[in-house]
């Protein structure tokens, strides 16, 4: 499925962000994940639970039911399913039908995020999750802002490629990102490890723009600024990076933009952004500013990739694809994703 050369659109042996912790309560939260309806709620003890969202009795959506104790009750005929997915009660009879159960998804709740494992339950290894702590999440010495979830009418791979080629900042975001006109001209270096791929831009001797002046009020000299785009898996891309005083080389701080991607289906995705920073932790106005900026910047990216999705869905004859040198990182990530997906089919 474009832009991949494999038929399966996404890997399943994978952790994805299912929801913000703040979204999940004793009420049922419905969310499509990898094309499957899922319901998420909390038990009486506060533990998050995720179950398949279709009742096996007559295919009624369980999101239209309710939570009874720690169980989910179908709103159609009252079948009740425990938090582990097993049917515990059928109102019209004393026993339960054989094999009456729902799929229960492994979950991990960390740093205000609820992660869901969509592969086989035996493979739900927490060590396969990204290292959130190193990115500034769940730490008292960093500030964090959670931006509202957006559900986007486009395949998740289009957003991955959008984020890996930040030269689009110069054009898509020319009204919303200060000094963004310089980004496209900064040379690119691709750095690969076994678990990540970074498309790195290092802006040197950049004049102090209004955003940097607000973030670092004592700074008067030019800055060196990293414009990273780091692929940490199909679920997470980090953009942003470190900022230094250009004269002394002293680190001013690190600003990360953490982009969490979860496919809702082949051509829809859930998109969550967290901003983290190592400076100004006691200045909430900086966080408020990030949320306001995000509310302007994110729709511009969404509009761009939804426009591409509409072209792909139109049935129009596509021109022969071309790439530029700056696309090297995105093309390497395509190959990584294809290898990951193919390895799953070989394991079946």
Features:
single chain; 348 residues; alpha+beta; Rieske Iron-sulfur Protein; Naphthalene 1,2-dioxygenase Alpha Subunit, Chain A, domain 1; 2 domains; 8-stranded antiparallel sheet; 4-stranded antiparallel sheet; 5 helices; 32% strand
Strand content: 25-35%
Question: Cα-atom Rg, whole angstroms?
Answer: 22 Å
Largest sheet data: 8 strands, antiparallel
Specify the CATH homologous superfamily of the largest domain: Naphthalene 1,2-dioxygenase Alpha Subunit, Chain A, domain 1
Number of helices: 5
The second-level CATH architecture of the largest domain is Alpha-Beta Complex
Low-confidence stretches: none
CATH class of the largest domain: Alpha Beta
CATH topology of the largest domain: Naphthalene 1,2-dioxygenase Alpha Subunit, Chain A, domain 1
Shape field: globular
